Amino acid sequence: MLSIKNLHASIEGTPILRGINLEVKAGEVHAIMGPNGSGKSTLASVLAGREEYEVTEGEVTFKGKDLLDLAPEDRAREGVFLAFQYPVEIPGVSSTNFLRTAVNQVREYRGLEPLDAVKFLSLMKEKMKLVEIDQKLLSRALNEGFSGGEKKRNEIFQMAMLEPTLSILDETDSGLDIDALKIVSNGVNQLKSADNATIVVTHYQRLLDYIVPDYVHVLYKGRIVKSGTKELALELEEKGYDWIKEEIDSAATV
Amino acid sequence: MSTLTKQDTFSPLLEAATDNFNEQRTLGKESFLSQGLPAVKEEEYKFTQISRKLEKEISDFQSAKPIELTKELVDQSIYEGFEGNVLVFNNGHFIPELSDLPEGVEISSITKKEDLNLGSIAKPEKDTFAALNLASFQDGAFISVPKKTQITAPILLLSFFKANFGQVVQPRIWIESGDFAEVTFIEQSVLLGEEIVFANKVVEIKGGLNTKINYYRLQNEGKQFIEVSNIETDIHQDSQFSAVTISLSGNLVRNNLNLNILGSNSVGNMYGIYLLNGKTHVDNHTNVDHTVPHAESNELYKGILADHSRGVFNGKIFVRQDAQKTNAFQQNNNILLSEDAVINTKPQLEIWADDVKCSHGCTTGQLDEEALFYLQARGIDKMQAKGLLLYAFAGEVLEHIETESFQAYCTNLVQERLGSKF
Ligand SMILES: Nc1ncnc2c1ncn2[C@@H]1O[C@H](COP(=O)(O)OP(=O)(O)OP(=O)(O)O)[C@@H](O)[C@H]1O
Ligand SMILES: [Mg+2]
User: Fewer beta carbons below 10 Å: N end or C end of chain B?
Assistant: First the structure.
């Protein structure tokens, strides 16, 4: 479904990603871990199409299409969804209007009829249950004044509404208490199917107890330096990143 | 070309002054001649080089004669959805035959009301263009809403402008309301023909006690329209006055809006939105003068500037020594969409009373790129996402329009302009 080959990206001339290779197949869950500043959010942003990042080398195909060639909105319409690490507050734009616009534009792209107000509201009700998000929250401006946890929950709610084929969750677990974490994970798990895939970026193994990954990758200095199964996450939890850093940094100096 | 001097350039206008209000006209003329046209460095017109503009664009400094105007054209021009009474102005002249006069309101040509103390509210010495208008206006309307009269349907002031043996039009309107009166005015203007027109407008509004007056303006006449307006209102006790000014196009527009709060327990509101593109220049100079205790003023202007457009906002708030317990709020926010667009914004507060609440703030920024990306990442088209964000920024001003049809009409225009209509 997603194939990343030798991806290099930089921001304002500074290389951040230095040769990422990753294959994600339908039905899989991949976890990406790694120390602060290693490039996890950058990778997520490049996949979603943020313009500040310049791809200097490599290629990304998504369902056979050149992903890097598409505008951010077309990537979303093709089925890429990024749950932001820091969701943006947008005063003056109502959550409901925003979502209805988004859902209908995505539907239009996929050749589906737009949802009328009634159908949209019933879809909303159904998905709200999934992440146990409060109606009151959605009657406010988009993310405005939402708590950290509410923002994260709203991201997953939007994901549920848009039904993506590839979801990238960038530290959706940070800022969630254990109950919220369970609810959000449960939502993600219910949306999982044999046809879609999930990439979870996280610092904490805790999340991976709920969203169980098929693969775990460690990103360091813009490269995937280690890949394994969910046991790797446990090892990282126990030992931290230093042993990996040492391995890589010493190899680099040889 | 020689620079404009008040004597020669404006003499055709001054000489053609009609034979009425002679005392006031003399005052106006003297005041205009002593003030002259704003010099390049004149503080009040520093960012709006009106003299240079007039020199460049206007060749025929005479009052444009009325044109042929049909009922059909009038009907076509009224904004869609309007329900109420229409007063028609033809190059500044009030045309009762084409108007649809509201019941219970006294309305006539201003020239029929010689006992009016014109210039007593919009004083000629305060602004040279107000003085010029007083000296040489041709016609306009007198509107009086009697005591305890609530005019529920809005009154549309529909003005047609066209260069016609002259490029200058100087409308003058006097509005007065008795105690407990309520009325809403909506200004809409139509520019006909290709030639540039200079409109120099004065509106004086004298409220009674416990009155409620709304004055809404839509400025969308296109790039051949140069306008200076002086709108000034006296607000008396227990009253509310609200102005909403929507500027969407024009060549150069200067709005002087002055509120004199003369009675306690009253509220003065000034709201504005300006969406500028091309080389449009819009300057909003507002002034609220708190002279008595326990009154409130609210001001919110929002601007979006694209291309080479230029905006000016200057908000003066005077709180006189007697005006204790004043609440004055002022805010001006701008988004610049192009590197060539310019905004000059300046709050000017003079507070002589000590027990007051005043707040003011102005911001100028760009479109929030993070927010734009967020919306795009949810599948929303970039242009529409921009429109959504811009409307979210500016749209709140329109919420202050109480006339539903006008609010809907303006919302539609604004959304169309911002690309947020879908
Ligand atoms: N706009 C920018 N300008 C310069 N450097 C940037 C910019 N954005 C990100 N970086 C740098 O890129 C590197 C990778 O950042 P990124 O946010 O991808 O890390 P991360 O792995 O997501 O970290 P965290 O775990 O803290 O979220 C960091 O060193 C960061 O400082
Ligand atoms: Mg990050």
Answer: N
